[in-house]
Amino acid sequence: xxxxxxxxxxxxxxxxxxxxxxxxxxxxxxxxxxxxxxxxxxxxxxxxxxxxxxxxxxxxxxxxxxxxxxxxxxxxxxxxxxxxxxxxxxxxxxxxxxxxxxxxxxxxxxxxxxxxxxxxxxxxxxxxxxxxxxxxxxxxxxxxxxxxxxxxxxxxxxxxxxxxxxxxxxxxxxxxxxxxxxxxxxxxxxxxxxxxxxxx
Length: 200
Description:
By secondary structure, the protein is mainly α. It is built from four helices and no strands. The longest helix has 84 residues, at 93-176.
């Protein structure tokens, strides 16, 4: 059965797959910020509910072990009652003791088997729940990492474009008035010099 977190992750993946690429790019996409934030918020709301469900699965381990212990105690108690009945019926003492020991041994073995099976079942549930949760968190980590890479690439492209514009404007100013630009650069260098002298 598909969990609510998996459904949210599939919706996010489908949304990313349906986004259009940026012009002149085969890797960068255009994302609607509001729609993407709604999908992330939905995933954030569902995650605690799913984790609580797996915590309840893990808590079942204690219930399984307690039930197995109860069954084992009942088996041993029945064996002891049966042993007492055999002895009280005035049968040959050695035969009674032998039968009693066999019953107690069989009951102990059966109780241990019940406990072992219960422990194995509880551990399997725990391992499956942890693996399932880890898979969900791994998918979420991949989506967040992709979103961070996309955002970082956009920021780098914006800075590169701004630097290009700045260099172009600076070059145009230098062509229009080279003497004024040289004087301004000299003043800026002089204003920075006292700061450099104060540094250790």
